[in-house]
Write the structure tokens for this entry.
Amino acid sequence: MQIAAVRAIPVNIPFVAPYRFSYGSIASLTKTIVEVKTDDGLVGWGEAADGDRSAAINAIAPRLIGIDPLDLDTIERAIVPGYAYSPWADVLGAKRSFGAIELALWDIRGKIEGKPLYELLGGAVRTEIPLTEYFSYRFPGPNHPGESTPLEVARECARLLEEFNGTIFEGKVGTVAVEDELTMVREIRAAIGDRPLRLDCNGGWLVETARELIPRFEEYGIDQWEEPVEGFEDLAAIRDVTDRPFSSHAANLPLAKALGVPNVIVTNLNELGGVRRTVEFADACRVAGIGFRFHSGETGVASTAYLHVTAALQHIDDASQTLFRWYGDDVIAGGPHVPRNGVVPVPTGPGLGIEIDREALDRCHRRYLAEGVFPGADGAMYGQDFTRR
């Protein structure tokens, strides 16, 4: 069996309402779907998380034609440089491109062997994957009112609790006036009772601001903080302010071990170079005593993959993030996933266990062609304000 074709398709996944966070606000996300075909007709699906990577992946495609799709080592060497840095090569971009392609190859392997991805990774230690409910201030969308006051955000959390029995709530601060956010958190706490409540600042506070504000927010029982400040050094500078865990998207394990922060690393399947490298990293986190979980924002392709990886790894025992309820579209049949009782069941079909909705894929690609990249390098967001507070 040989790889016969590799194709990358950029897509835009809209949110039902633009959400607000410390960088500004955003109405849509650009992802790149990867289709790999073999010479005997099998098709595998992957995804790049970091916007439009189609040009890079389509340029790589000719190097892969004729290679055994199960030969991950040869394919990785054909894409990822064997050095950590070069002034001429985008090493991180190559890892991300390979990660997208590698996911499709795992999907193909699962279809060859008739096994779901989690079985290829050693078997399931859990079959229902815990996820957080997410909240933020949101601007009105085409058919959604958004949430513009503390009480409206709290009412949305109450709705999620009543309708879906959400178990862990996580959301944005560092976005609007501090007193409004304190009121929002107080009202959310009243709405959700004693369920865990986590806050994500996206690095929007300075050290001095975090030292002042964290104790005020913790009056309402905060379970975990994600990036109240930027950088591990700044996290270390506020470690004495709270005993609550810190999480970060930066996957720098040696620095985390040296500084003692963050307590949890939150990433995706592309950043480290695919499923295999992410599994290795998560195991290294386990040895180091550092937690690991996934963030959300991908289509149903990569999101389903992180369900499988979470199913297979005992160490990923905390709820990962999800924006599934915010999606206005998806590329998988029946998508996006719908968490209930704080979990989503992992698919049991071969490979990723999903089907691509070809009509939806085409629709999301046309949306990308009409809108361009979100978020764009030119600040293609609404109400952007990159000033740290």
Summary: Residues 91-113 form the longest helix (23 residues). The first strand starts at residue 3 and ends at 21.
